[in-house]
Amino acid sequence: MSHLFFRRIERRPVLLSFSLLMLISLIQFGQSALQIAKRSSVFHDSPYTMWLSMDQFSFIPILFFLLVPLLAAIPGATLIAKDRQTRFTQQLILRRGGMRVAWGYLVTSFVLGAALVGGTLLINFFGFFLLLPNLKPDFFLNLNIAVMSQDTLWVGLYYTHPLWHALASILLAATWSGLFASFATAMAWFLKNRFLTVAAGLLLQIGLMAANLLLPLPAHASFVPSDFMRESAGATLSGSVVASVTAIVALAIAALTMIGGRVRAYESNR
Question: pTM here?
Fold first, then answer.
C-alpha cells in the first residue's frame, strides 16, 4: 500500500529538504577544500578524517545534525498534515482501514527521511575522495581529531576498516533521520498545526538535549541523537545507550501510530 503514498509525495517539499541538506553539506565541503588548498602537505589527511560527520573543527556539522530532525521530516509530515486538513485521510481510512493507512504514512516518511539524509552524507563523504588520498587513519598522525572509544562507536573498525565504519555511521544517521521523520508523522494524528507537526522531531531532539543536561547518565554517556548520529562526537558515547534510546523511540513511534490510526478510524466510522 505504501506505493499509494509515494505517488502522492509532492516534489517541492522533497526538493526543499534535499536542497537545504545539500547546502549545509556543500558549505562544509567548501570550507574543508579551502583548508586543504592552503596546506603545504596533506599526507596525514584523508576523506575519513575530514568529511562532514568527522569534521570537529567547524560549527557546520553541529548545525547539520541539529537540523536533521526538521529537514528529514518535511516531505512526509507535510503530506499527512495536508491530507488531514483536506480530510483525505478520512476517505483513505474508510476504504483501507485506520491501521493500514497509519502504517502507510509512517513507512513513507521513514524511507524519505532516511534517503534524504543518507544520500546527502554519502555525496559529501565520497566527494572528499576527489580532494584527498584514500589513506587509513593513523592514531598518532591523526591525534588532532582524537577519535577514541569514549566518543566514537566501534572505534576499532575506524582504524582497521574506515570505509565500513563511515558507511555504518551513515546507516545509523539515516536510520535516526527516518525515525525523526516517522515521529513527526505519528504526531500528525494528534496535532492540527502543520508547523508543529513538521517540527515535532526537532522538538523531540531539543527535549532530549535538555534531559541529557538535567538528568545525566552514569559516565555522562550522551543519549542525544545529534551526538551519536555523527561518526565521532564531542560527547561520551555508549553502544548500549544508543541501542536503548533507538529501541525506546522506535517503540514510542509504533505506539503513537497504532493509537492514532485507531482513534482516527473510530472517528471516521462514527
Answer: 0.92
